[in-house]
Amino acid sequence: MKTYHWTAAVVFSLVAASCAKPDDLTRPARLKGSPAFEAVRFTDLPGWRLDSVAAALPAFARSCAVIAKRSPNVPMAINQYAGIVQDWADACKAIPQSELNAEQARGYFETWFTPYRVMGNDPEMGLFTGYFEADLLGSRHKDKKFTIPIYRRPRDLVLVNLGDWRNDLAGRRISGRVINGRLKPYYSRSDIRAGRLEGIVEPLVWLDDPVDAFFLHIQGSGRVRLSDGAAMRIGYDGHNGHAYYPIGRHLIETGAIPREGMSMQKIRAWLEKNPTQKDTVMNLNGAYIFFREVRGDGPLGAQGVVLSPGRSLAVDPRAIPLGLPVWIDVNYPDEAGKRLRRLMVAQDTGGAIKGPVRADIFWGNGSMAERLAGPMKAGGSYFVFIPKGRVSSRSR
Fold first, then answer.
1. Closest CA to 7 of 351, 339, 383, 288
2. What is the pTM of this model?
């Protein structure tokens, strides 16, 4: 599942053991529209010795399993700064099978990797937001209470990976439907809400609240407690290709909500208090997400692995390839109220996650995750880990 979430990203767009510095690694070059990198020591990572680094190892192991299935000569990154898949083989195979403490886990990463500071247009500051897995009430069948459809991917929806045609378009996708042999835009949110998919695709599940459904589209995944007592997990399975529009921007511009203190919770509260206007406002965002039922553990990220609460990161894959370990330093309180500094793994993407130093933190599910994700829009920086001596000559 490729998630398509904008939790606090919605809010932002509303208004963002020491190892010697190795000599055998070539600093990757800055390319147009790409991040720049600077090799640093592990002792340069803010809070490196304070994090429970071992908590990120299971997430990285899952990413390594996906990386191992790729062709060995394929570049890890679009601009090739992270070498090729084969360059990661030894480090991935060296992941200890037994449980490690934090010090042992730090030793593993210090042995196999070099951290690189990632720099965008503003070398001092990036933007970090948060998302979570929503908990919802629903039914597999429409009734008087459950009337809001959550749709499966329609049969006539065409998903196009532009990278299949041109390398410089790698990571970019469009969606549409074929009319008279030509690809045309798919139905918008307002079209779908008006019933244009009736007879084309059966709903996957029915919800009882249109606002819940709207925010489910923002999160990209959810757990639904069904009316018969069973439960189902649903996840992203495509989108209609329309551009995402942050309705919070509209609410600020019209004076409905002040810019200061804007949050997902404030947007939800406004929608619930304005029933005669909420549909019009929600339909300003033409983007619409389709879902599938996810069996077993979840939710799944864009890399196809189960996301780890507090350890999985959504990134722009044009800047940071999925699977990379990423050290973050963010001006935002963690679960314990301390500055957020920890090791994470790039395992997901998001519609509003664009740019070199831009990330969305997966906080898990439940009320605590929602409280952490909803208001999050914080400045910070991050560092990617690349195997020692494994930078491809094509990045030089």
1. 351
2. 0.77
| pLDDT tens-digit series, residues 241-273 | 998 888 999 999 999 999 887 888 899 999 999
Residue range 47-93, pLDDT digits in tens:
999 999 999 999 999 999 999 999 999 889 877 789 899 999 999 99
Closest CA to 290 of 235, 242, 344: 235
Nearest to 2 by CA among 308, 348, 309: 348
* β-strand partners of 38: 117
Q: Are 118 and 357 in contact (CB under 8 A)?
A: yes
**Which domains are delineated in the chain?**
7-128+303-395 (2.40.40.10), 135-294 (2.40.240.50)
Closest CA to 241 of 182, 325, 310, 172: 172
pLDDT tens, 294-319? 988 888 898 999 999 999 999 998 88
Cα–Cα distances in angstroms (integers) from residue 70 to residues 177, 256, 312, in the given order: 30, 49, 21
List, in order, residues 6 or more apart from 23 with CB less than 8 Å away: none
**DSSP state letter for 121:** S
The radius of gyration of the chain from alpha carbons, rounded to an integer in Å, stands at 21
**Is the distance from CB of 83 to CB of 386 less than 8 angstroms?**
yes
CA distance 149 to 208: 9
CA distance 384 to 248: 32
**Cis status of the peptide bond prior to 333, with omega within 30 of 0:** no
Cβ atoms 355, 319 nearer than 8 A: yes
Residue of 347, 337, 339 lying closest to 311 (CA atoms) = 347
CA distance 16 to 299: 27
State the DSSP H helix or E strand holding residue 364, giving kind and residue range, or none if neither.
strand 358-365
Residues 6+ apart with CB under 8 A from 78: 34, 167, 170, 171, 317, 318, 321
Alpha helices in the chain (DSSP H): 7-14, 57-67, 89-93, 102-112, 189-193, 210-219, 247-253, 264-273, 278-282, 367-373
